Amino acid sequence: MEKLIAPRGEEIISLLTRYINEIELFNPVYGLVGTNDGDELVIKHILDSLAPLGIISRLLNEVCVEGTPQIADAGSGAGLPGIPLAAVLPQCDFTLIERMGRRAGFLCGTKAVLNLSNITVEEGELEKTARGRFSLVTFRAFKPLEPKLLKTLFNACAPNGVIAAYKGKREKTEEELRPLKELCGQCEIVPYAVPFLDEERHLLIIRAKRPSVIV
After folding, report:
1. In this structure, which CATH number among 1.10.10.10, 3.40.50.300, 3.40.50.150, 3.10.450.710 belongs to the domain 2-208?
2. pTM (2 d.p.)
3. 50-54, 101-105, 130-134: least confidently modelled range
4. Alpha carbon of 118 to those of 84, 142, 188, 195: distances in Å?
């Protein structure tokens, strides 16, 4: 991760600073994040989105051996984690999927302000995205996993694609995962540390039972 970020450190900081400014400007109107505190925004949203970057990079190396990695940010909302990840992973293409028109408009405006060419915004339901399309489908601040949603997420994945869900406490994540075991192939709950945050954070990684789209 250090090799990835170091040569572009100033550029990344500039992009993230402008992104934070956009959230702070539009949050009172669009309700993008649940805080108006600048430090909390940076720690619990920006740094939290970037903290598992090493894990995500490993996953992409495993599932995408050729071509440009295609990543979906499902229920993107304010663009978290998609926009911070897109800022540090310019070699990947990100699709931010958001069903609410006003928030999708915010994402389009923010893409223009940041001039991030590796971002596409799709307004609509996750169910209507192209099947078998993404190397990685990720989300945070999304509704809890249940069988119908998990199948929808698998349908959006490429044949060897994976789901990476940002989660909090391990015990709660294990409880959420328990009724989904029959649908899953391999599952991992990987801890990651967010700078300046003394709270549990885990990345839940789920692979389908077979390398094909679930009907």
Report:
1. 3.40.50.150
2. 0.92
3. 130-134
4. 12, 23, 28, 26
